[in-house]
Write a structure and sequence with these properties.
The structure is a single chain. The chain is α/β, with parallel strands linked by helices. Among the domains are: about 200 residues, Aspartate Aminotransferase, domain 2, CATH 3.40.640; about 140 residues, Aspartate Aminotransferase, domain 1 (Alpha-Beta Complex). The protein is built from 19 helices and 13 strands. The strands form three sheets. Strands 1-7-6-5-4-2-3 form a seven-stranded mixed sheet, sandwiched between helices. Strands 10-11-13-12 form a four-stranded antiparallel sheet. Strand 12 and strand 13 form a beta hairpin. Helix 16 packs antiparallel against helix 18. The longest helix has about 40 residues. The protein is globular and about 95 Å long. The termini are far apart. Belongs to the group II decarboxylase family. Sphingosine-1-phosphate lyase subfamily. Its cofactor is pyridoxal 5'-phosphate. It is found in: Endoplasmic reticulum membrane. Keywords: Endoplasmic reticulum, Lipid metabolism, Lyase, Membrane, Pyridoxal phosphate, Signal-anchor, Sphingolipid metabolism, Transmembrane, Transmembrane helix.
């Protein structure tokens, strides 16, 4: 003990003797500088761990290049050219925007002016991927029904439940009927499924992420939340992460283009609040392994959200029709929330979706309550305060009008046509279907031609398909609009492939060069800047 004390005394004396000649300011600053350096190294290491060494180096290199005189200006000029190309003909219409109220009202012209503007829209009947899910003319049949329902309640607002009790009941019934389709009647669901209507899939996803964040903070005290998603998960999760300050851990899909469960497991840590599984994913129409993700969520005590925005009003009926649909709903242990759109295959008016939770203990974290406002006590269930009651009524009317038999019939039609389109694409030389589509989205690529050049030819024929990346591909989301003209689609697609084979290279006015370059560009920051510039000049 005495020897240790003596050694410590000697070390102290030696240190004092060595430092005696140093500047006091340096002695104070050195530890602080060392701490700052350590923090910088830690931040750099974390950045590399998140984004990868290659991405970080490319970002740094591009930042350095932009410091060279003239380079930044050249890049800005080139970006402007690309933005103009992306806008195509929309810039001219923007120049003709009305910017002031008419001095005298023009009630007799309003409807005529609206019709004139509407007549300038592209022909969407049957030629758009997704977009419009209802069959027939917009002035007849189901269209006419939901439009009438909307007009009956266009003045109502669910915010005022004491006034518009009818709308409150309609919303409750839409939520309950949707929940019943997704396992609420199953014993495994726990019998407490609850939720709300929203303005669309993105709001449903935003609410589910915000709710999961706050629920996990109350449950585990997590203050630096992270969520795990597959790279095929919808971009709305990135939006939620930016809005709610959540770190995204993005996991590459496996060889079947599905969420990689082992990859998800490797990303779980003490800050993980939730994982996301899609049924199906938007890009390729494939259902992630929800059961396996549910087991993982249960094992680690974290939330699992299932994105059923596309599949919520198809998969329950496809399963009843005998299609091999894997488990995807609240009957799966570990699923804590589900988003599903009524305005897609539910055939309701645009702007209607639902977000559902396994129990009320979770959903309570969705609400915003304000007690100190001079305007009184305030509570709101969703992101919007005022909401259009007409949309709630339109969704209710769609579901009640169709019933189980109507949804089974429409699902049977689109599933059958989807399989025919899948087979037709497989039969076209040079094309291949990506994965094994579970539902009504068929994605396809090519090992023989530039698929984006094929898309340009299809666009010239009036088709509006979705361009995908990683791998470069296209997809068609099959709706009732396609059931009568799918053969025309396959013929046009085969002709387009043949055209590109015979005359490879971009066509005048085509978007293939931009899509191709964006996919290959290593600096994703520049691509992001392009998108922001395009949006800023478009709205």
């Amino acid at each position: 003990m005495e020897a240790a004390a003596e050694l410590a005394q000697r070390l102290r004396a030696a240190a004092n003797e060595r430092l005696a000649g140093q500047e006091p300011l340096l002695l104070v600053a050195a530890p602080l500088l060392a701490l700052l350096a350590a923090r910088a190294v830690h931040a750099a290491a974390a950045d590399v761990a998140d984004r990868g060494l290659r991405t970080v180096l490319i970002t740094l290199a591009m930042a350095a290049v932009k410091l060279v005189p003239g380079v930044s200006g050249y890049i800005a000029a080139e970006k402007s050219k690309v933005v103009e190309k992306l806008q195509s003909g929309s810039a001219s219409s923007k120049k003709n925007l009305r910017t002031e109220l008419p001095a005298v009202g023009i009630p007799d012209r309003v409807i005529g002016d609206l019709q004139a503007l509407k007549d300038k829209d592209v022909r969407w009947q049957g030629k758009c991927s997704g977009t419009v899910y209802i069959a027939g003319s917009e002035s007849e049949g189901h269209f006419s029904l939901i439009n009438k329902a909307y007009s009956m309640f266009s003045h109502t607002n669910p915010l005022h439940q004491d006034v518009f009790k009818s709308v409150a009941q309609l919303e409750a019934e839409v939520v309950a009927m949707t929940a019943a389709l997704l396992g609420s009647k199953e014993k495994a669901s726990g019998g407490q499924i609850c939720g709300n209507m929203t303005s669309g899939g993105t709001e449903s996803i935003l609410l589910a992420v915000k709710t999961s964040r706050d629920y996990m903070q109350s449950k585990k005290g997590i203050t630096k939340p992270e969520m795990i998603i597959a790279e095929s998960a919808h971009s709305a999760y990135d939006k939620a992460a930016q809005y709610f300050n959540i770190k995204v851990r993005r996991v590459p899909v496996n060889k079947e283009f599905l969420a990689d469960v082992k990859g998800f497991k490797r990303c779980i840590n003490g800050n993980t609040i939730m994982m996301v599984g899609s049924a199906p994913g938007f890009p390729h129409g494939l259902i992630d392994p929800i059961e396996e993700l549910g087991e993982l969520a249960s094992q680690y005590g974290i939330c699992l959200h299932v994105d059923l925005c596309l599949g919520g009003f198809v998969l329950p009926f496809a399963r009843k029709l005998g299609y091999p649909i894997p488990p995807f709903d609240f009957s799966v242990k570990g699923v804590t929330s589900i988003s599903t759109d009524v305005h897609k295959y539910g055939l309701a008016p645009k702007g209607t979706s639902t977000v559902l939770y396994r129990n009320h203990a979770i959903r309570k974290h969705q609400f915003v309550a304000v007690t100190e406002w001079t305007g009184g006590l305030y509570i709101s269930p969703t992101m919007a305060g005022s909401r259009p009651g007409g949309l709630v009524a339109g969704a209710w009317a769609a579901m009640m009008s169709l019933g189980l038999n109507g949804y089974l019939e429409s699902t049977g039609k689109i599933m059958e046509v989807s399989k025919k389109i899948q087979k037709g694409i497989d039969d076209i030389s040079g094309l291949f279907v990506i994965g094994k589509p579970d539902m009504t989205v068929v994605a396809f690529g090519s090992d023989a031609v530039d698929i984006f050049e094929v898309n340009d030819i299809m666009s010239s024929k009036g088709w509006h398909l979705n361009a995908l990346q990683r791998p470069n591909s296209l997809h068609i989301c099959v709706t009732l609009q396609h059931t009568a003209i799918y053969e025309e689609f396959l013929k046009d697609l085969e002709d387009s492939v043949d055209t590109v084979k015979a005359n490879p290279g971009p066509i005048s006015g085509g978007m293939a060069p931009i899509y191709g370059a964006a996919g290959k560009m290593p600096d994703r920051g520049t691509v992001k800047e392009l998108l922001v510039e395009f949006m800023d000049s478009s709205c």
